[in-house]
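Weekly puzzle thread! Below is a chain. First person to post its structure in token form gets bragging rights.
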Amino acid sequence: MNKTGVLAFLSVGLLSAAVIAPAAASADPASESTGNELSGKTVFLDPGHQGTGHSEDLTRQVDDGRGGTKDCQTTGMTSLGGVPEHTINWNVSQLVKSSLESLGATVVTSRADDTGWGGCVDERAEAATRSGADVAVSIHADSTSTGLDENKHGFHLIVPTLPIPDAAADAAQSAGGRQATSLMRDAYERAGFTPANYAGVTDGVQERSDVAGPALTGVPLVFVEMGNGSNPSDADTLETTDGQLKHAIALSTGIIDYLLGPDTSVTPEEIAAETDAESVPSLPTVPSAADSTAGNSLSRLLSELAPYVDAGGGEADVRAVADVAQGLLRQILTR
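Winning reply:
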């Protein structure tokens, strides 16, 4: 199966996971996919923060990667709707994990559940390095106020100020880390998310020297702030099942772009020619193969599906998008 076929299969896996059960996928596409398209690839997922069922001292000082110390952990934000960040991060990470594993990737996570302790920042960085992952993704959501903040909104990605004192971390974050971050930013924008308009973010990226994770991690790391939980629109997307699915699609897309690289072999015309318009709902338009910012063909199609999952639209809307993915897959498998 080519990369576009992998994408359709992945779309179905994500959508089914969100609607039915975390590990469920459509029976027909799953039986026809090889399921090993990402075989040999390892991804480390770090759903930021931890549950409340622990007695750890969050203020215990740990290595910050730059010769100083910082707090072991923070509690994370709580969205306007009262959903804790650690739960949002966990839910999204489980969708991403399920989708990547359905394609044969090995996925290692920093914490095993959303109830207990997940480790200090230095311990998570060490676990990522020890995993030898091709890429690590730290999943977070931001806040700018304990209450309502209607003016600040959008996603952003944090990159460490270079150079980093540790040679292995510096090499990982100055090369693969920067590339993976750029691809993730592009994936988020193609999925319809808006870059943050605050905190000195430029083109969706914020450079910082006070975040320990990137300065301690010896594999390429992407640090994502999915949105501002203080903003009504961002919070709604972060809190809802459909919104979390949108974020999972964008995250999976960025990871796939980095793992599989660019591929412009499949054109919009080929996809349209092989799609049965009567059996499949209206299809999204895939960016032109000549568009150098479009990413690989697999991720282009997945990111184009994202806007069709309307936040708050309910199970019917999600299933409609699943039908699109299934229809595309059926056609692609006959190539």
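Puzzle host: Confirmed. Bonus trivia for everyone else. Confidence is low (pLDDT under 50) at residues 18-32, 263-294, 309-335.
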